[in-house]
Amino acid sequence: MSQLVNETARIVSNDAVGPRLHLMVLESPLIAQHILPGQFVHMRLPDFESHILRRPFSVYARNASAGTLEILYQEVGTVTRLMPSLENAAVEMIGPVGNTWATDCSHALLVGGGVGAAPLFMLAETLKAAGIPFDVVLGAQTQSALVARERYAGLLGCEPCCATDDGSYGRAGFCTSLVEERLAEGCLADNAPYDYLAVCGPEPLMKIVSKMGADAGVRTQVSMEKRMACGIGACLSCVVDTVNGKRRSCVDGPIFEAEEVVW
In the CATH scheme, what is the code of domain 5-97? Predict the structure, then answer.
């Protein structure tokens, strides 16, 4: 696990990329150098004195040589609804926090629902660099919310498997039907069975896909993104119920073996 640092980062850009979706680029040389796929940062935002707690954000991508991080976020609460107004501001961040996705596999299937596509992208880059075949399934409510699709396509060299609730792009309906199909047919590259499944998105999606993985005998990991107060394991606000008792998402996770989670 990477050593935690407390770094003052500068917001380089903060652009709208979809419905209530924004991509923030931060200049954060220390964290960018050390962060691993699946890890996150715990951020204190300027001019939000009434909200004293830090906010956790998964890292979408990093450029170690440029010293930058990218965070894909959605407007869902008081703070994230105010975040689009931040420009060229300094933010205080603790990171890299948490553990990382597994990469000891031969064929992987990555499943991202909504903004859950973001925490999987660095894993996809790592698998690509290691020459490990992988496929990607993305789901969203509508085409305009599939904001990571083109980036995954560039990495894969082809379109990821996509589904939208309203049928505006890819398969109509939930992306779980695509997951079921891929598990049955195997990797698109060579039809070999998958031996690793990584899932990030709404908890109901992760629960369903985890059962699919268990039924297929495929090792499955999930990213359990919980509300956090301290981000260092002291406050116990982000506990996940597991077969081994309560675990802290911030320091014991956020990546968990799906078979351990009590859904």
Answer: 2.40.30.10
